[in-house]
Structure formats: C-alpha cells, structure tokens
Prior knowledge:
The protein is mainly α and about 120 residues long. The protein has one domain.
Amino acid sequence: MSRPDRPTPARGARIIDSRRLLVALVRGEELGLVVPLALEIVSASPLASAGCFRGDLLRGLMEVPGSFWGACPQLYERYRAALRAAATLRRQLPREERMEFWSRLDAEVAEHGERMRT
Length: 118
C-alpha cells in the first residue's frame, strides 16, 4: 500500500502543470499525489499562482480535508510553514492585492483561471 505522503513518479507524470495541480486540489482528487507536489511549489514560493490569483496554489491546499493532514503530519507541518510564509508576504502587498488571496476558488475557477473577486 502506498503512503499518501510519497507520490509515485509514474502517476506524478500526469500532473504536468500548476493549473492541473490546482484543479486536482480543489476537487480533492489524488491528494496523496498532488499535495506533495503543491507543497514543493509553495515551499519555494508561498504565493505561487496557477493563473487565478497570487497564492491560489496555497488556497487550493487550504481545501484539503483535515483527515488527510491528520494522516500525514510531516506534510501538515510543511503546509503550516507555507501558510506562515505566505501571510508574511501578503502583509507587504497593497490591500487590494492582499485581499485577492480570498477570492472565490472552486473547480470552475481553477479550470479556467478566472479571477473572480468576492
């Protein structure tokens, strides 16, 4: 049985861009594969974007259910570190850009890269 915090390379090859990664996160698909990949990106760049708005990948990680994080405590610690880093970076942005982080994010938005303000 594969562990959810260890992606398999063959399956990882199917996720070829950050947009697909974001869609999978928002839909809750293949979390054992996509969460570690997304964490790699947001660990290096906490406000990385898949085309919707600054920080949308981190917002996608915020959609991951608590049960997943409970089963993967090392990934959860990386996620929390990315949240803290992103919060620090967002504080330095102008208000409008800072608030964009809380824009609508669902499967439709993730798929089409639409920027929808709340």
